[in-house]
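Now read these lines:
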Amino acid sequence: MKYRRCRPNKRIYRNLALGILVFLLIATVFPVMGSEVMIIN
């Protein structure tokens, strides 16, 4: 997929979406890891 010319605001939106994605990933993964550590201990 080729973009004609990436506007700065479009890049900001992409970074924002990426940040939200990473935040959701951490929010879902960390409690699972924490519960596993609690079970092990």
Notes: The radius of gyration is 17 Å.
